[in-house]
Q: What sequence folds into this?
């Protein structure tokens, strides 16, 4: 339990201030020395995030991790690129009428900020899933992923976004996971991928992949903890505001058994 | 654990078919009788959802419940209205520079489909929170909420959206909850509200309110279970696809203690 002074500051969304305040209290007690930065996290931390918005993307695949990263963006400088084929609002609606049997109109649109052709500089590409992953018309997305992958610090996939990345070949040889309810169809898209189950998420060098939808939120918290200065404090504070109990063990995945996904090596 | 045949159908996103298939197996065994509909859920179920998009709304407050309801919309007809002051893309960016100290550009925009003046017919209004709740400029939102509330079947608030609803006076006399990390400031906005803690969410007649951000996802699942035919099966299937472990007890709220919120009567 954090002391009251920290909570009070927290309520004002000022974690960075709280941390500086704590340091200012602690430092004199240890002889005035400012603790050295244990690594160069602050220099190497990725700043520029691109989110892919293919037709029929899952909104929670995008906005779960995005909300978590937005909390981080209030503690350190971050930039967001929302990438699509054109600058027209990106649609979440399914292409095939069979995916919307009851003729519902429940498909919001989101405004892209760059096209794939713009190819803005990004450090991290986040690929969401949803019905998008089963689309037969992913050519421009796959071309863009292939082109940008070598330049990335990190590739992050959410849910069946791993199927899209697999189709682009960028997961080949990597350990990766995906939605356990869609395991057979998604893993078939990447026969050269080392698919891992059970797994809430999998880290493999520059490639981070998460399981179904809400697993992307836990991946985002872990990413912040590992890659940003004061990441653990920032993640835990943000989780409090979101009232999200972070799943901290990447192997904590009840859905693999639930959907009869075999245990991988 | 569901039998394999059901899981297979589930993977094809066809819960309704699976349920009909199950009924076709079960019915002959009980004499061919189709079980009577236990209530008129299918007639009275709300169909038309409006989401309020005030400036600086939290994206996860909107897109968490929206993703859950979108899953429902693949099993029954639903309509979505995204409501804002104008049809210009609704911004999530804070109004005050002090809310974005590191000059981050991490604020997506979402396309509204109606203005408040359009006043489209809706059965449910969903009010998200975020920095929006602390805005001094909520006049048009408050006017709209006051106007539409008497016509609604249900009002749903997510996170600090309860603060916005409280400012409109529509929570007065109702039992309600809100984000525990923002408890003091939000409850001060509604001195006539019967604020409840601990609570992941609170149902009080036509008013459903949820605690911080991700609590809106659990509220949405509970709403589906209670208000739609086959709601429990639909909710559980959708939770599997989202890999979300639903919090099913509205009193299951560790954040009240974490943020020192007093227990209410």
A:
């Amino acid at each position: 339990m954090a002391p009251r002074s920290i909570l009070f500051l927290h309520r004002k969304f000022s974690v960075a201030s709280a941390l500086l305040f704590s340091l200012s209290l602690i430092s004199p007690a240890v002889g005035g020395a400012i603790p050295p930065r244990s690594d160069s996290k602050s220099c190497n931390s990725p700043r520029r995030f691109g989110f892919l918005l293919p037709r029929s993307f899952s909104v929670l695949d995008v906005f779960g991790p995005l909300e978590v990263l937005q909390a981080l963006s209030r503690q350190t400088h971050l930039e967001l690129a929302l990438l699509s084929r054109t600058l027209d609002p990106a649609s979440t609606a399914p292409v095939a009428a069979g995916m919307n049997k009851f003729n519902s109109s429940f498909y919001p649109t989101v405004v892209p900020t760059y096209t794939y052709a713009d190819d803005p500089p990004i450090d991290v590409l986040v690929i969401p899933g949803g019905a998008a992953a089963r689309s037969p018309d992913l050519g421009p997305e796959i071309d863009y992923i292939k082109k940008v992958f070598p330049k990335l610090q990190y590739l992050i996939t959410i849910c069946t976004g791993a199927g899209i990345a697999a189709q682009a070949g960028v997961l080949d040889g990597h350990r990766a996971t995906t939605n356990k309810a869609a395991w057979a169809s998604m893993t078939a898209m990447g026969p050269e991928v080392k698919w891992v189950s059970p797994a809430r998420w999998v880290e493999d060098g520059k490639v981070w992949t998460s399981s179904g939808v809400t697993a992307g939120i836990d991946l985002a918290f872990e990413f912040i903890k590992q890659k940003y200065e004061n990441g653990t404090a920032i993640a835990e504070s943000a989780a409090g505001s979101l009232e999200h109990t972070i799943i901290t063990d990447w192997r904590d995945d009840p859905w693999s058994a639930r959907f009869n996904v075999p245990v991988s090596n």
